[in-house]
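Can anyone check this?
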Amino acid sequence: MAEQQNINQFGREELIDILQYLYVQIDEFFTIKNKMSSIVEQTISTRVKQATTAKYNRNGNIGGIIFALMGVVELGNNFFNALFMMGVMYLFGQAAVRLFMWLMARPTNKKHSAFGLNYTVNVLSKKQLEKVTQEATVEAEHSQEYQSLLADKLALESNQTLLYFLSLIPDNFANLTDFAGMLVWLQDFRATNFQEAANLWRTEQHQQSVMNQQKKWRNNWRGVMLKFHNCVIRRSDFVRGRLIWKMPRQGQLSRMRELMKN
């Protein structure tokens, strides 16, 4: 294997095997990376929701207790009335503090939930959010699932066969899209080596790009013509309406006939 230094030295069948191998391995590599990123994102999302709910509950309880203390003034009148007022004021304080937190929250692109409702704000401060995010990232990266995926990723990165074949492929063709495109030409017997497959694939891509541009241009031109057509119709209707408005009425026509007779 080490003696091969040029990808064009491989025949069609060998090249198909190489490109299929590269496609499978690279696809698996990106799949693993996406799964690792997903684990981190899900952990961060969960921890942010938990921290947000905890802050709502903590501040709500504090506000409720403060408002409930206002009910102590009723102790001198009636003990049960005081307890009732303290309960009402506690609930009012909870609602007031939570509403105030929601109104003062910072906008964010991610949706969270509280009270069973979805909202797009973040009650955590920037520093608190950064801390929760960092801790959640560390937690995710130390999870068993993440570590297992990391081991698979490192194994692919150190795969000597994969690295060797990748080193033979030009950088501008070392991607899944080009692997799949060249495989089609090779499997259909329309190319016998890498150079032919690469040239045919690039030609097909160029033709497809030109067709897409022409289709886009036609759609744009069709839109312009439609606007022009609608504009002409509206102008024609406007002119026709003015002409009809300026036409003599029935009474005017009768008077004009009498004048012509005289």
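Reply from J.R.: I decoded it. Residues 74 and 102 are 31 Å apart (CA to CA).
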